[in-house]
Amino acid sequence: MARTLKESFFKKHVALTQEHGSWVFLFSPLIIGLFAGGRWTAGSGYLVLTVLAVFLFKQPLTVAVKVGSGRRGKQDLQSAYFWMGVYGVFALIGFAGMWVQGFAWLAVLALPGLPVLVWYLYLVARRAERRQIGVEIVASGALALGATAAYWIGIGETNPLGWWLWLLTWFQSAASIVYAALRLDQRGWKELPWLGQRVKVAGRALGYTGFNLGWQYSWGSGTPSWRGGVGVCPSVCGNGLGNGSPGDELAPCPDRHSAIDRFHPIYPFVYHFLVGGLIKRSDRIEEADDFG
């Protein structure tokens, strides 16, 4: 009986997303929003529960769409319905808690994610969801709104800095996505291209990261910000080294090159931690202006 239930409902590929990199784009903005907000409240806990439940809801929904479009057998449909129900209940509990705490209005920040989800499911039904960089970048922008919500709950009010926090975290996520796409393209190289060709191929990734570096370095009361510069520098170095190395199968020292990609996912966390310092610094500047 227990084995039958496990085989029918408790299927890992239905319950949990197979896109491992997406966890970074969910948690890093959320964590830095909580950090920048300065305090943990009951509303913060309900927000985390709601966001996580909604995020997890996408996987069984995707499986159900695949079954409906003929990409999967109907044996996964029962499990998909089960997990959609579980995640739906937790999402409702979290939202009810936010309602009680007076933060139900933050649900409007989830609205931009709805058309992105519909777009993604449409691509899934057409077997065209893979390597859609545009969809991934837009989706990371929707997830980055978690930073804004967490920050506003922490300070107990809306503040324009919440929108800046959203943009900063979104731009870094976008740079990471473009870089990952570059590395995937490099896997197909049969030989190392000349430098000009490598720079041309990596132009988009370097452009995204360079923009982040320039903006972060100059952000903050019109003066250069060392926190912003240091926050983006690891990503700049990673992109540069990644552009210089062709991929593991062509690399003369595979371990060294694979380490570049292995450590690249932590760059957003370094970046977001230092951005949190920028937000707190801006808060102190505003307070000083108010009392000055």
Task: List the defining traits of the structure above.
Tetracycline Repressor, domain 2, mainly alpha, 292 residues
**The CATH class of the largest domain:** Mainly Alpha
Name the beta content range: under 5%
Mean pLDDT: 78
CATH topology of the largest domain: Tetracycline Repressor, domain 2
Helix content: over 70%
Radius of gyration: 21 Å
- DSSP E strands, number: 0
Report the structural category: mainly alpha
Q: Which term fits the overall shape?
A: flat
CATH architecture tag of the largest domain: Orthogonal Bundle
- Number of domain modules: 2
Q: What are the low-pLDDT stretches, counting only 5+ consecutive residues below 50?
A: 221-231, 248-266, 281-292
Helix tally equals 13
Provide structural commentary.
This protein has 292 residues and is mostly helical. The protein folds into 2 domains: 1-156, Tetracycline Repressor, domain 2 (Orthogonal Bundle); 160-292. The chain is 75% helix and 0% strand. It is flat and about 60 Å long. Mean pLDDT is 78; it is low at 221-231, 248-266 and 281-292.
List the helices and strands and how they pair.
Blueprint: H1 2-8, H2 12-15, H3 22-37, H4 42-68, H5 77-101, H6 113-125, H7 133-155, H8 161-186, H9 195-201, H10 203-218, H11 226-244, H12 254-263, H13 267-291
